[in-house]
Amino acid sequence: MAHFEKANNLNEWMDQRIGLNTLKRVLNTEYWIPKDINFLWAMGMVLAATFGILVISGIFLLMYYKPDTNLAFDSVNYTIMSEVGYGWLWRHIHGVGASIVFLIIYIHMFTGIYYSSYKRGRELIWLSGMGLFVAFSAEAFSGYMLPWGQMSYWAGMVITNLFSGGSLEAYGLVEWIRGDYVPGDAYLTRFFMLHVFLIPLVIIGLIVLHFGTLRLPHVNNQEGADIDFEEAADLWKEGKRKESKVIPFSPVFLSKDVFVMGVYFILFFYLVFYNFDFAMDPVNFDTANGLKTPAHIYPEWYFLWSYEILRPFSKDVGLIAFGVAQAAMFFLPFIDRSPNVAPAHKRGLFQIWFWVLLVDMIVLTAMGKLPPTDPTFAFIGLFSAVLFLIMGPALFIITLFEKKLEKGA
Amino acid sequence: MRELKIFAVVAFFSLLTYYLVEPYAHHAMHVKVDAEGKEIHIESHGFTYDGTDDIVEAERKGDAALVTKKKAFWSEVKTIAALKGDAVAGEAGFGMCMGCHMDGAVNMGGVVPPKLDHAGAIYDKNYLIALIKNPAMASNVDHKYADTMMHPMGSVSSMFADNQSIADVVAYLQAHKAEEVTAKEAFTEACVRCHAVRYMKTTQLGDTPKFKHKKDALAHEIKVIEEQDMVKAYMGHLPPDLSMMIRARSEHFMETFIENPQGQLPGTSMPRVGLNHEGFEKVKEYLTEAGDPSKKARAELGPWVLGFFVFFTILAFLWKKSMWRDLH
Lengths: 409, 328
Known about the structure:
The complex is a heterodimer of chains A (409) and B (328).
Chain A (H helix, E strand, L loop, with lengths): L9 H9 L1 H10 L2 E3 L8 H20 L9 H12 L3 H28 L8 H23 L4 H12 L9 H8 L6 H31 L13 H9 L8 E3 H26 L29 H7 L4 H14 L3 H4 L13 H21 L5 H26 L9
Antiparallel strand pairs in A: 1-2
Chain B lengths: L1 H28 L2 E2 L5 E2 L11 H10 L2 H19 L4 H11 L21 H4 L2 H9 L1 H4 L17 H4 L3 H14 L6 H9 L10 E2 L2 E2 L6 H22 L9 H4 L2 H9 L1 H4 L12 H15 L3 H30 L4
Antiparallel strand pairs in B: 1-2, 3-4
Helix pairs in contact in B: 2-3, 3-6, 4-9, 6-9, 10-15
């Protein structure tokens, strides 16, 4: 047994028992972050804060929500919106948060791609991040079922139908997932469980893993420079702040994070109070009705690009393309054969590849919502879906021939 | 400055995506086209009624006889509107209205005849004239009564045979039935015969009373179901509960739909109810109270929360400044 002495204060008492000072050092004051970064490096903390907001607002909503097909709609739209004090505020925060968290996730992902922050020791950061993306997607989808409006019901119908596997016609599997022939009470209660328990648990676990994968390879920097962190840290500790290439996470990096979060929260609460419709589709304020299909069924904006990879093709081809597109992103660190960790603007053809990917995904997103009955939209949709699928092999070829950059460039 | 450039790029692509999936996509989704593929623009006429929409719709159908009929009808309405109505003479005519539109009226031919206590305040003058002249034409649901079925108010034309008597009764309504109206009264008179609002405990029979005994509550519920069955038989299906309608439809949709249901939903059995601008504002107020009661609280709290975060951001910026001062 370890040796314990009488502690003089709470900090000492805690330190003896859980190594508080070591924890503080490892996670805060001597967790070194490169100095050469911009505000995009704060997106991780912005995401963590948004997740926190979603959890807190979710807890308040959970106290009044009723997972029952007869009660769900009114428990949200009547009880929470008009009877519970500030229920409307928690709901709008939760709704806007669920949508805007994906904007930040996409910015975070494209930042990672732009600065090649997924290679040479940072593969696990990317993989755990992709795991988080999938978990957040499942969380968003399951949450979307809960108000039991028209879009909840019909989006649930469409997405669960995907599991029939096209020509495989595996309707047994679909029924197993739904617990019924169509989305009903059994369906709602299981998605409720997933939304408030299982998936959040997975997300929390993945967030810990994601932070963990960051600790050894360290955060990338604006130039992709290889930094000797120990040497730089020593310089910092000697007080040579100008010469050192790193800063401690707390309080120096954190001060920038908090500032970026402040700007973000201004935008966030502007949306909560003045422009929440984009996150709360009007169609979902009609009660679920299995006999009345809405004129247009579309997912929330953050799923539109993958929806559009599914939609322009025939049933089976579409499903395969959709599956490939979902999985492909995971393999990015292994498809990219380049030896360089550098921002895209220093990587030749890769830069073009990056912007084409970004624009293509925005085009896919737009086409995913526009009615495919218009032949122009249908054609653009098909074209951009095919382009997206070509982007993978294209990256492999481009990066295979990429020249190694001079050190210190 | 590099950070600002990066921020501009991020903002540009975010806003572009927003524009494409929100305003642009929603516009493209709700485009209505005629038989030749030309876009139909549905605009509000400020809650005045002169049959413009009805005539255009008939023309679009290519039914020449119908066009002539509609034109003739609305031009006669215009003629009557130009007559000087005598409110005193109209009082006797209004007595005939009260035969059906009375307190405690029961379902007649499909719906409970609505009360007319504020008819002069919430309905448009031209519309009232048109309604007494020919209820089906005024409501723009004449297609429903093309064969043997008769509008429940159809017999009104025999009561007001000459145009002067119509002008008189409308003058009476505008002089004596136009007191200040609450949102609830306006909504009850204009909408409740067909639409329930469960969040306001209102059914097709009006406000649901409080009952001491469950037996009485159940008895009332049965009466409501019976009433709903009659409305359903008359309308084709039960008109929707309007509790959340204020959030389920855009303001533009509400305005144009209430002015002329056929424009947004061709063939619908919902009649035009002829609300004037004030009537619409009152109905909207009531629906907001039912479906979006936090609107006021939102507007009050918003500036405080935003103000807090602006202040927070300024402090955070100063902190960051001081932390990063000697780093470069």
